[in-house]
Amino acid sequence: MGRPNVLLVVLDCVRAANTSLLGHRRRTTPFLEAFGREATVYTQARTTASWSLPAHTSLFTGVPAEGHTLKITERLQPGQTIFDFLHKEGYETGVFTENPYLTVHPSGLSDSFETVVTERPDSTDVDDPSETRNGVDGFWYADELTEWVDEQTESWAACLNLMDAHMPYATRDAYDEWGADLYWGMHDELPIKWEWSVYGEQLPPGVGQLLEPLYDGAIRQTDAILEQVIGDLEARGVLDDTLVVITADHGDGFGEPPQAATEPPAVM
């Protein structure tokens, strides 16, 4: 084997406590459980930030958030990420995600990649919960990644960020195993300010308990997308030549202390 490919899969907003891989009562991650039996599972992983921009900057650079101190109005200096390094070593690089901080935001993170695949042309408004259920999801980005892999003639390094577990949820019916019409009705009427409250203790009493079954369904969908990606790589004969790292940038919280949002799953 020559130089291995590198695939970083970021399960955006997925916290370790809600994965069945690490003991959650609902079977949210059956594929990740199976994959973990053939991989290394880290049970004490921590993220250095509770939102996407600083957390991904740390993932890409290895520098803790308190070290790089990148803010939303600032720009990362060129050539600082692992993907920059791999590109200099001859790797083809690509990022596939709906997350704007990795693609269109002027933070500079997208500069680390030759190929940037962001919002699909017909995607719905992610700030309007009523428009997103059964709308855009990570399966499309997974397909884009696979097509890109098919085109590569050299070793490649890619980041696939899956936003399916990010509020507002847009879970397909096949994976909405624990939701109910009552929960979805409340979800669709949430004020925008509450959507961002899942990162700490700010949700009104009882709301977190109603949202968590929807969150678990979204994680179940994320796990299914992950299964598709790994299966596609295996079918193409490239999985054994690929270093796969699966983690999250941060998690969500449903009334617990903020620490819950800083404990991601981590599998390599």
Automatic annotation (TrEMBL):
Pfam families xref list: Sulfatase
Residue ranges annotated for the Sulfatase N-terminal domain, each copy included: 4-256
Sequence intervals crossing the membrane: none
The name this protein goes by in its record: Sulfatase-like protein
Organism: Haloarcula hispanica
